[in-house]
Amino acid sequence: MNVSVVKLTIAATCCILAGVAAAQATAGAVIRVDSPAGIASGSNRTEARQTGKFSGINLHAPVQVIVSIGATPSISVSGPADVVPLILTTVSDNVLTIALKDSVIFTKPVKVVITNPSLQAVDISGSGSLNASGISGDSLNLNVSGSGTVVAAGSVKMVNVAIKGSGDVDVRAVQAKALNASVKGSGDLRGYASTSAIVDVTGSGDVRIRGNPPARIVNRSGSGDVIFE
């Protein structure tokens, strides 16, 4: 009899927690996985952040990042009032890292808007997205692990891309002389190269390259396609 009571209590508790989570998701909630659940206030908030010098971005949070090139560096975080303080933005060794303070699930979008004099490297792990415009310089290095996405525009001498997982990279609007790409998994790459392209595909990911580069090296293993448009 005691055993039955315990089972009923556990089942009831699970139902209650599930109901709370569903209600929070409907309301646009933030749920702290490693602490008691909390509901976002519903109001939006924009917070300006202090920033140091950086030329690379590491994105380890499921947020939308928009980068534009400008002389005066700035960072702002916008989203539900309860979520914004949980988004960390720190600069170390010339790299801006965007991460979560706690393990959280939120259903309303969070946006990080950045202005910086340059952007040379992006590293995404997870499901975050980054859109950058006005890029220039010698090289742009992009690394995506997981389901994240990168869209970029500008002009550089060389673009290096590494995709592991289902993430997508679109750099067709980056006028590059050379493109070096490694795609492992189901992620897709859209790129541009006017002089040379080196492409290594393992898995089902597809690569499409514009610019008609005369020098081409392609290594392909799996069902993925490499198409020069």
From TrEMBL:
InterPro entries given in the database record: DUF2807
Highest taxon of the lineage: Bacteria
Signal sequence coordinates: 1-23
All copies of domain Putative auto-transporter adhesin head GIN, residue ranges: 54-213
TM region(s), chain numbering: none
Coiled coil regions in record: none
UniProt keyword annotations, A-Z: Signal
Official protein name in the record: Putative auto-transporter adhesin, head GIN domain
Taxonomic source organism: Paraburkholderia phenazinium
